[in-house]
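Example 9 (inverse folding). The structure is encoded as follows.
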């Protein structure tokens, strides 16, 4: 009887010993798998770190090459030092968000054998899990290499900016900040070997040419009250006889060259007769300039007023870049001939709403849409060239056919009715050179971000690894 318990306990002790041995064996066999798993995690983190380092290096080399031009040819060590000083802050900023990745070394230089090429190299250390366990804490090193070719084209850009009454207040302030940022990105400090110039085309119910209006539209007659005279007498949409004076603003041209860039000497632009609620806006066109300070001063002086003749703004964005209008401007500010291989011409259109104002004989037409002022300030009869949207689209097609790159920015379009917003978005899409050139910012911060991205794209440098 006493043997049975002993016999039963024997096998149980044997099982416990076997279980322990099996546990040790299993732990030993799983160790390589655990190390492999940790190694796989580290490998993935390493690939991610290298990708982040490469992106940061690309951005830093790109920014530095855009800001620094070699003072000598071939470049000197001093040029490399200026390039490095411009690149390091950007590199640090782009890597700063990742605490486990530390920049170990970075160098930037201009290639002596390839003019215009900037080179960046960087090495960073990544703290790994496996390194902490079995490699005495040694980090994983990742490297990146970038080569940036400075843009090899001259630049002429026209900023066509909506300064209508609906832009008043914070929206206009947002536009000023965004436009100043865009000018800073586009106009390089060094204008040799490639120049970069920007024209400003503020618009509302028309475009103000100032003292150049007479040359562009012709001298106004004095002893008459008809179209082409200093004063124009007409019958309004409400049946009243009105007389408006000619202003220094201008309107669309008619006939066969209404949607071309043919010289104003062949096809003069239209007179503008200002009266009632839609006078000639105060802000004037600024022809092509590489003077950042002067451009900024003009932008800061913008004032919101009037209704929206976006097609006239677009036309003068094109004309400010068109060789046929070169003689209208001072010699140093004249656009060059079209030359796609050596010169990039760009129009950036910005608007916050419907194009609602068109003209007949220099007076807002009877069929202009809501928001273009009271009917008694409109002339009886429809617009000679049709609606502002239709004219804008025809002008965009014309300038794109000449190789002008067009960006379209529709700002805060949602404030319009759904139908108006849809029409505005459709025009932005049709006017721009591609869908990627359309921006629809909703806030002031969005507008600044859109203009910043446009600026970076226009002045983009090609990255090659």
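The amino acid assigned to each position is listed next.
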């Amino acid at each position: 009887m006493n043997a049975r318990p002993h016999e039963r306990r024997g096998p149980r002790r044997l099982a416990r010993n076997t279980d322990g041995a099996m546990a040790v064996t299993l732990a030993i066999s799983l160790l390589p798998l655990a190390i492999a798993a940790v190694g796989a995690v580290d490998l993935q983190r390493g690939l991610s770190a290298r990708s982040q380092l490469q992106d940061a290096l690309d951005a830093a080399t790109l920014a530095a090459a855009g800001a620094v031009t070699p003072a000598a040819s071939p470049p000197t060590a001093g040029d490399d030092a200026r390039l490095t000083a411009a690149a390091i802050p950007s590199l640090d900023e782009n890597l700063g968000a990742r605490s486990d990745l530390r920049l170990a070394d970075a160098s930037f230089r201009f290639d002596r054998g390839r003019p215009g090429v900037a080179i960046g190299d960087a090495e960073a250390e990544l703290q790994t899990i496996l390194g902490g366990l079995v490699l005495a804490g040694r980090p994983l090193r990742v490297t990146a290499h970038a080569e940036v070719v400075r843009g090899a084209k001259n630049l002429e850009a026209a900023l066509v900016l909506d300064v209508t009454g609906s832009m008043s207040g914070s929206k206009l302030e947002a536009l000023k900040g965004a436009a100043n940022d865009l000018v800073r990105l586009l106009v390089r400090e060094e204008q040799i070997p490639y120049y970069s110039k920007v024209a400003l085309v503020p618009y509302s119910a028309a475009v103000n040419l100032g003292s150049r209006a007479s040359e562009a539209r012709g001298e106004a007659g004095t002893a008459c009250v008809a179209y082409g005279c200093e004063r124009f007498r007409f019958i309004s949409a409400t049946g009243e006889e009105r007389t408006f004076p000619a202003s220094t603003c201008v309107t669309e041209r008619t006939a066969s060259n209404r949607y071309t860039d043919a010289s104003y000497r062949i096809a003069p632009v239209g007179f503008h007769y200002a009266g009632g609620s839609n006078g000639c806006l105060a802000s004037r066109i600024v022809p092509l300039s590489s003077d950042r300070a002067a451009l900024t001063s003009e932008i800061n002086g913008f004032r919101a007023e009037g209704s929206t003749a976006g097609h006239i703004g677009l036309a003068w964005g094109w004309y400010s870049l068109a060789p046929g209008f070169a003689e209208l401007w001072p010699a140093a500010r004249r656009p060059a001939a079209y030359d796609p291989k050596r010169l990039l011409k760009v129009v950036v259109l910005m608007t916050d709403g419907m194009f609602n104002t068109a003209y007949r004989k220099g007076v807002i037409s009877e069929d202009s849409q809501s928001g273009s002022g009271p009917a008694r300030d409109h002339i009886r009869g429809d617009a000679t060239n049709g609606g502002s949207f239709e004219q804008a689209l025809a002008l965009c097609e014309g300038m794109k056919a000449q190789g002008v790159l067009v960006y379209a920015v529709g700002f805060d379009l949602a404030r319009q009715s759904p139908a108006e917003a849809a029409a505005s978005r459709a025009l932005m899409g049709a006017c721009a050179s591609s869908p990627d050139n359309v921006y629809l910012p909703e806030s002031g911060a969005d507008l600044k971000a859109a203009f910043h991205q446009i600026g970076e794209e226009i002045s983009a440098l090609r990255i090659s690894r």
